[in-house]
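Key result, reporting period 2: structure in, sequence out.
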């Protein structure tokens, strides 16, 4: 299966968890379906869900939790 990149639609801070004391939305190796939430991008205290835009298996997160992200930057890789 070809590699697919899920990109952030907006600039902000990327979070892999819904809250600091909760588990990550998805781990590397997890299967995702189009529409599954894989993370959040926070902009000015507003959180935007980032959803998978294709079916696949998460093969990597090129950006770490709580790191700044630019619009169009890859936040998850699907295989």
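The corresponding designed sequence is given below.
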């Amino acid at each position: 299966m070809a590699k697919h990149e899920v990109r952030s639609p907006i600039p902000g801070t990327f979070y892999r968890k819904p809250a600091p004391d909760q588990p990550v939305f998805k781990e590397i190796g997890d299967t995702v379906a189009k529409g599954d939430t894989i993370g959040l991008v926070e902009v000015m205290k507003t959180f935007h869900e980032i959803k998978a835009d294709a079916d696949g298996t998460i093969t990597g997160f090129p950006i770490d939790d709580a790191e700044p992200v630019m619009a169009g930057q890859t936040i998850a890789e699907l295989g």
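The chain has one domain: 4-78. The chain has no helices and eight strands. This case is discussed further under Risks and Mitigation.
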